[in-house]
Amino acid sequence: MQNSIDSKPLILWLLGDGKPGHENQSLGLADAIARQSHCEVHRISIAGKRGLPARIQAAVQASAGLPRPDLIIAAGHATHPALLWLARKHRAKSIVLMRPSLPMGWFDLCIVPSHDFKNPPRRENVIVTQGALNRVAPPDAGERNGGLILIGGPSRTHGWDGEKLLSALTEITATGTWQLTDSRRTPAGFSDEIRKRLPAVEVFPHQQTPTDWLPAKLAAAESVWVTEDSVSMIYEALSSGAKVGLLSTPRVKNSSRVLLGLERLVTARFLTPYGTWQGARRLSTPPEILREADRCARELISHLGRDSFCLAQGSADQRPG
To answer: Under CATH, what is the fold of the domain 147-280?
Structure first.
């Protein structure tokens, strides 16, 4: 690599598809890299573009005039061809988050949640993580107080039972100070029902919260409850250092790699299910704080220091052009 990480800032391009869940993963890795190394971050968007030619053209146009990248980071299937195109064009390293739709050997590094695999591969260009990366920074040592509730909604793996959820929240919020936010999947009217039946709970609709609201609230909360369907928010909560409770929602599928991952977290006492909490009236302290973005950043910088990403396909010249 021509750019030394000791003398010049790393130039990061973040290629986004406009989906907050994908872009937050890229931003989470970029934030973690910035905590460990001097870098410049530039965002490129192909949001709304359909078809391979349009997406590549949008990426090329959006990146025109930017300093030459050292790393290009992307998440989401729509970004994969443009990521490879830009990486080859600029002789940069391609970093893909989540399991790619294209062969993993085509990318310099794949950072993939374990639940994306039935059996995680042993490849030198793959880092397997517990959950998707996120923007929640390692917590300060300051005092934490209050509680936060994160509500999801129906998904491919879960249904919805608003009345049962309200009953659980009534019990959980009987003491203490609580704030709640919903998500784009939360059924219409549920937050209004919370305001009516649980007036002491302060409600913050997701449409009205800025991007840094949730990381800041997670960093300050002592306890966090998350609905089981919201896997990304569960891992965000576990990255915050809070004690985390799991609110059950009806399962459409009784078994999946995602659910198995959550059950492992419960067994390891990272998560306290609502039924367990009912007996003890307390949340267990997680055995550790998940800092996956920082771990991945350290491994990435270590690779850069050796200038030796090991490609399964051999060299960059063997990548698709």
So the answer is: Rossmann fold (3.40.50)
**pLDDT (tens digit per residue) in 141-195:** 778 899 999 999 999 889 999 999 999 999 999 999 999 999 999 999 999 999 9
Task: Cite the residue boundaries of each domain of the chain with CATH code 3.40.50.2300.
Answer: 10-133+293-318
Residue 217: which of 199, 237, 246, 243 has the closest Cα?
Answer: 237
- At 230, is the secondary structure helix, strand, or coil? coil
Mean pLDDT lowest among 27-31, 46-50, 122-126, 182-186: 122-126
Each residue of 176-210: b (16+ CB within 10 Å) or e? Answer: eebbbbbbebbeeebbeebeeebeebebbebeeee
Residues of each domain in the chain carrying CATH 3.40.50.2000: 147-280
Fold (topology level) of 10-133+293-318: Rossmann fold (3.40.50)
For every residue of 78-131, DSSP letters joined together read GGHHHHHHHHHHHT-EEEEES--SS-GGGSSEEEEEGGG-SS----TTEEEESS
Nearest to 125 by CA among 110, 139, 145, 135: 110
